[in-house]
Amino acid sequence: MAGGRPTRAEVDLDRIAHNVTVLRRLTRPGTAFMAVVKADGYGHGAAEVAAVALEHGATWLGVAIPEEALALRAAGIGAPILVLGPILPHQAAMVVAAGARATVSGVAEARALGRAARAAGREPAVVHLKVDTGMGRIGLLPDEAGAERALQVAGQPGVSVEGIFTHFAAADEADKGYTRWQLDRFFGFLEVLARRGLKPAIRHAANSAGLLEVPESHLDLVRVGIALYGLFPSPEVRREVDLRPALRLVTAVAQVRTVPAGTRVSYGCTWQAGRDTVLAVLPAGYADGYRRALGNRAQVLVGGRRAPVVGHVCMDQTIVDVGDLSGVAPGDEAVLLGEQSGDRITADELAEHLGTINYEVVTGIGRRVPRVYLRGGRPAGPPRP
Ligand SMILES: *Cc1c(COP(=O)(O)O)cnc(C)c1O
């Protein structure tokens, strides 16, 4: 960090380890644990999170796109990886090059995968069939035509169907009716396929919410994303497991100025000092993922106390009113997200201001923010640019 930017995302890998450990305890011994590290580990850093999760009992990794699988391989990670998102036929070669499993919902990508695997001398291409039981997104429909297509996929030369899965649309809601309906449709479809001789070895359905609240969805493998990072999938999910948020987005006060009543702040002059006060400028903005709409809504922690963000957040700077705090000086740590001296700005709190969900808050942290990894409370290595 010497000479570096004060704005950084600190990721406490011990907390990731803790979360994996407590989450694994919720499953039976026969259920495998997939750490979902798509979108650069929900903004935390895919390779670092993957390595820690694998050390603590995860045996699978989930990503969204083939490039993410390749990046994990480049980081020296050898665990099985499932590409959860859809691929077009031209992406088959990259999945094969990464030695990853593809998600398949149609014959075209299965054929392309079989061909790519043969061309690379890496047969068979291992795939997981996706079944759309109610998400309305990718997958085979669990009907007669869907079963026919599943059998066609399994019949492609050079293709091996290892798994079959579905994804929940509303497992994070208090009412689990829709989720149970999806699960029933999934089980029904599995039976239809079994009668026709197709019995993929790994059946999976649960995301974090399914893991936390729908034990009958655990099956052979659970696909855990948001909970791994210490966040709950929604406010409706019970806080019964001790999840610990792993990320803090911090910066340091760059400038402190006493200003007279009437001073206007930031683009559009949307805030005006109602009294003489003290403003602190933070060298972080929406280009770092601290969204513009947090202006005049969110608070930051300085010296363990809350200070309101005033005016619009700029691309690279944010202004806070520290008139109620005493002795704020340049260089003081300011926390945009996470804990400081016993108080905490949560991803849920920022999501609430923005009308979104905690997932979008953490995945939105900008690429130019260095990630600093902590282990045993200490930096675990040089920051990753
Ligand atoms: C992202 C994703 C997950 C993980 O979801 P969380 O709610 O973050 O646990 C699981 N399965 C699929 C198919 C996904 O795309």
Which superfamily, in CATH terms, is the homologous superfamily of the largest domain?
Answer: Alanine racemase
Average predicted local confidence, pLDDT: 97
The whole-angstrom Rg is 24 Å
Which structural class do you get from the secondary structure elements? Answer: alpha/beta
Q: In the CATH classification, which architecture of the largest domain applies?
A: Alpha-Beta Barrel
Number of domains: 2
Per DSSP, the total helix count is 11
Percent of residues in helices: 25-40%
Unreliable segments of 5+ consecutive residues: none
Tally of strands: 21
Overall geometric form: elongated
> Would you tell me which CATH topology of the largest domain applies?
TIM Barrel
Estimate the strand proportion. Answer: 15-25%
Q: What characterizes the major β-sheet?
A: 8 strands, mixed
Q: What does the oligomeric state look like here?
A: single chain
**Between the first and last Cα atoms, what is the distance in angstroms?**
11 Å
The molecules bound to the chains, other than polymers, are: pyridoxal-5'-phosphate
CATH class of the largest domain: Alpha Beta
Task: Please render the helix and strand layout as text.
Blueprint: E1 8-12, H1 13-24, E2 32-36, H2 38-42, H3 46-55, E3 60-63, H4 66-74, E4 81-83, H5 92-97, E5 101-104, H6 107-119, E6 125-131, H7 144-154, E7 159-166, H8 177-195, E8 202-204, H9 208-213, E9 221-224, E10 247-252, E11 255-259, E12 264-265, E13 271-272, E14 277-282, E15 299-302, E16 305-308, E17 318-321, E18 333-340, E19 343-345, H10 347-354, H11 358-363, E20 371-375, E21 378-379
Parallel strand pairs: 1-20, 2-3, 2-9, 3-4, 4-5, 5-6, 6-7, 7-8
Antiparallel strand pairs: 1-10, 10-18, 11-14, 12-13, 14-17, 15-16, 15-18, 18-19, 20-21
Helix pairs in contact: 1-3
The structure holds pyridoxal-5'-phosphate (PLP).
